Amino acid sequence: MPVKSPPKPARPGYRCAECGWTTAKWVGRCGECQAWGSVEEVGVPVVRTTVAARVLEPARPIADVDVEAARASPSGVDEFDRVLGGGLVPGAVVLMAGEPGVGKSTLLLDVASRVASSGRTVLYVTAEESAAQVRLRAERIGALHPRLLLAAETDLATLLGHVEQCAPDLLVVDSVQTVASASVDGAAGGVSQVREVAGALIAVAKRRGLATLLVGHVTKDGSIAGPRTLEHLVDVVCQFEGERHSRLRLLRAVKNRYGPTDEVGCFDMSEDGIVGLADPSGLFVSSTPEPVAGTCITVTLEGRRPLLAELQALVAAENSAGSARRVTSGLDSSRIAMVLAVVQRRLGASALAQKDTYVATVGGVRLTEPSVDLAVALAVTSAASDEPLPPRMVALGEVGLAGEVRRVQGVPRRLAEAARLGFDRAIVPTGSVPAGKGPEGIAVFEAATLADAVRAARLVG
C-alpha cells in the first residue's frame, strides 16, 4: 500500500494595506494602487464562517425611515456650509486635508466657536499642539466660548473617554494621523494606526449621531496621508488649498455623500483669522483708474462658482540674445506657449518670436481652465500693439491651434456674474449664447476665430 506524503504547508500571502490587493510574493510597490511599502505579510489565510445572528431591528420600507435625523444644521460659516451641502449632518464624518500652514486648524477652530455660539457643545481635541497654543490662536481670532471644550490628547482610548464624558454635539480632532491606539502596534500615523483611529471615531460618530471633523495630513504629492481606505470610510473629504504668499484660500469637496462635489468655498486668510468671501472677485481684479495696455478680464469657473480674474501681459523690447523668454505666473506655461504660437501664426504677429513675453494673473490666483485662452491672446495682442482694450469688457473662450475660438461650459452663468459686477461688453465663442437670451445690460460679441475676437475688441480693423 503506497504511503501518502504529508500535505505541503500553505504558503503565506501578502496583501496591500491600502487597497487590499493580494499577491503570492512580496513586492515593494502595490500592483493595484501603486503605493510604495504598503504590501505586508498576512500569513496563512484562515477560513471563518459567520453564523446568522438575531435581528434586533427589522427592516422597514424606505419611505418609513425618518429623515429628520439626517438634516444638516448650519455651522455659522456660510462658505463652509456651501461646500458641505448646507451644514453639518449628525453622525457625518468630515475629513479636511491640506498642506501645512494653509489654515486648516484656524478654519475648524472658527467653525467650532460658531457652533458653540449657537448653543451646542463642541469638543476640540488637539493632538499636535498644546492646549495653551490653541488657546492663544482662539484668542487671536475671537473664538473663545464657554461651550467650546478643549483637550490635548494623543491616546485614542482617552479621546473616546472625553467623548463619553462631555457628550458633545460636534467633535473636532486635529489631527487623525497624530492620535494612536495602545492596542495596535506601530507609531502614530502608520497605516494600521490611522485605520484603527479612524474606524473607532467613525463608529462613535455613527452610534451617537455625532458630527465629527477630522484634520488630515497630506504627502509630498498632495494626496491624503495614511491608507486609501480612510477616504472611503469618511462621509465627506474636503481639500483646503491656497498659495503661501496669497491670502486666498479655497475649500473643495472631493467626496460628499450629502451634497455636490463641485462647490467651492472662498476664504480670506489674515492675521486676525479666516473670513469667508461671498464675493471674492475683487481680489483678482486691479483697480486702475485708466485702461492699461496688456490687461484683459476673464470669468473662470471654480466648481460651479464664477470668478472674475484679470490677466496681464507685457511684451518687452526685442531680445538681442536670440532666444525670447516666456515667463508665466499663475498660469500653465505650456498652454501659454501654445497660445502665443497661435497669436504669432494666425494674427501675423511674427515679431513676438524675438520679444520677451510675460503673462501673469492678479492676486495670486491660479487659472488652469482652457477658457482663459482668449483673454491671454487679447492681453498679449494689446500689449504688443500698446493699445488698451475697451473698459468693462470680459473675454472667454478656448483657442485652438487653427486659430478658432471654441465654446466652453457655463457661459450664461459667467456672463451673469460679469453683468452683476458692472461689465457691459463680452466676447464669447460663436453659439455660446442663444439669440436674445444674453444677460441684461451686457452686449455680447461672438467670435468664431481669434481674428474675429481681435476685431470685436477694436484692436485692429
Describe the protein's architecture and organization:
By secondary structure, the chain is an alpha/beta fold. The protein has 3 domains: 13-43, no CATH class; 71-278, Rossmann fold, CATH 3.40.50.300; 283-456, Ribosomal Protein S5, domain 2. The protein contains 10 helices and 21 strands. A hairpin with a 2-residue loop joins strand 13 (295-302) and strand 14 (305-318). Helix 7 packs across helix 8. The relative contact order is 0.09. The model has no long low-confidence stretch (mean pLDDT 88).
Portion of residues within helices: 10-25%
Strand order of the largest sheet: 6-5-7-8-4-9-10-11-12
Q: What do we call the CATH homologous superfamily of the largest domain? A: P-loop containing nucleotide triphosphate hydrolases
Mean model confidence by pLDDT: 88
Number of domains: 3
Q: Distance N terminus to C terminus?
A: 105 Å
Annotated CATH topology of the largest domain? Rossmann fold
Strand elements, count: 21
Report the portion of residues in β strands.
15-25%
The profile of the biggest β sheet is:
9 strands, mixed
Content-based structural category = alpha/beta
What is the rounded Rg? 28 Å
Total of helices = 10
CATH architecture of the largest domain: 3-Layer(aba) Sandwich
